[in-house]
Specification:
Shape: elongated
CATH topology of the largest domain: TIM Barrel
Number of domains: 2
Largest sheet: 10 strands, mixed
Bound molecules: S-adenosyl-L-homocysteine
Radius of gyration: 21 Å
Order of helices and strands: HHHEEEEEHEHEHEHEHHEHEHEH
Helix content: 25-40%
CATH architecture of the largest domain: Alpha-Beta Barrel
Distance between the termini: 39 Å
Oligomer: single chain
Length: about 350
């Protein structure tokens, strides 16, 4: 059992024979206060060592790289069975966001995504997900980590059984507001349906990238199972159930999904959902030939969307020089551990 996989009642069992208040001290110490067992100074030394040995951390740091003047920190972790996952901590003026992984690898096979190009290894456990946030908080020191986004490796809604308990834990025990937590999906409709049943008001982002089935089948193959019409239906139902807007993510790929016609299709998809759009400059990945749209083209696309009555934000492209796009650091670590490509 790893440190953040143990439940409160399992910890209570482990502490049998200890005074009752120890449970709160230790639980709150490692979650709410983000402490290492050694640093639980209100707990006797022997018990601290026992906790450290019985509940080892799940994540072993492999690499830690910062860029954008220390405002972006990318962390590569090794899991107990050797798999590698990444998380990225990004500091902005008004917030600090950690982008976390939900799976080692990914089975969704989106053509432009570095993780999609690697294939699927396994689901992360609840504790492996929660611990990424704990580590980010520890790393962040002077700045409070305010936001959590499930936009690292993996498809969170394909690992709902572990992701949802992690979301609850991040909210209730780590103290991050539900409205500051964003689950991002490529469009796993059964997962969206399950999310609609939950009352916790987290944000939902949908990685759309194409608003016609032909192109979407090609770049996001999950669309062959859950085509746009099914996706739209599930998002309408989500909106009715939760009374919350979704956002749509759109990676801007040169000459593929950045034409005026594409903007029109996107607007038609977004309008009935009242969705907000985030335009993401494409990060180049080794296995994808297409290039990113130029900044001028992205700005024009945004204006076209606005002329169709749809609001869109252009996302800043953090950490391109440290391969901070989804899965890229790990890809580089495996392919060329000593010689990183400069973006
Ligand atoms: N599987 C989930 C979450 C992980 S991907 C999902 O698809 O939403 C997180 C975001 O990064 C998604 O919007 C995804 O489309 C985007 N992304 C993946 N590869 C990218 C790349 N090379 N450049 C820009 N954005 C990318």
């Amino acid at each position: 059992m790893t440190r953040y996989d143990i439940s409160r009642s399992q910890l209570a069992e482990l502490l049998e024979g200890e005074p009752k208040y120890r449970l709160d001290q230790i639980w709150h110490g490692i979650h709410g206060q983000f402490r290492e067992p050694e640093d639980l100074t209100n707990v006797p030394k022997e018990l601290r060592s026992a906790i450290r040995d019985l509940l080892p951390a799940a994540l072993t740091p492999i690499r830690n790289i910062s860029s954008d003047g220390e405002t972006t920190v990318k962390q590569l972790w090794q899991l107990h069975d050797g798999h590698l996952v990444e998380s990225v901590l990004m500091h902005y003026k008004d917030r600090s966001t950690v982008c976390i992984s939900s799976q080692a690898g990914c089975a969704m096979a989106c053509s432009f995504c570095a993780t999609g190009q690697m294939g699927f290894d396994r689901h992360l456990s609840t504790g492996e997900i929660v611990e990424q946030v704990v580590r980010a908080v520890q790393q962040s020191q002077t700045k409070r980590v305010s936001n959590v986004v499930f936009m690292g490796m993996g498809e969170p809604l394909a690992n709902f059984d572990n992701v949802w308990p992690a979301v609850r834990r991040i909210n209730s025990d780590l103290g991050i507001g539900a409205r500051k937590i964003t689950v991002s999906t490529v469009g796993v409709v059964p997962g969206i349906q399950r999310l609609s049943l939950e009352t916790l008001p987290v944000n939902l982002a949908v990685s759309l990238h194409a608003a016609n089935d032909k192109l979407r089948n090609q770049i996001a193959p999950i669309n062959r199972t859950y085509p746009l019409r099914k996706l739209a239906e599930s998002l309408q139902a989500y909106r009715r159930a939760k009374n919350r807007r979704v956002s749509l993510e759109w990676a801007m790929i040169d000459s593929l999904n950045d034409s005026q016609g594409a903007a029109q299709e996107l607007a038609a998809f977004a309008r009935p959902l009242g969705a907000h759009i985030n335009l993401i400059p494409l990060n180049p990945t080794p296995g994808f030939e297409g290039g990113g749209s130029s900044p001028a083209r992205i700005a024009e696309f945004q204006e076209q969307l606005e002329s169709f009555g749809i609001n869109a934000t252009i996302r800043s492209n953090r950490g391109t020089d440290i391969d901070a796009a989804c899965g890229q650091l790990r890809a580089e670590h495996i392919i060329r551990p000593s010689k990183r490509r400069k973006a």
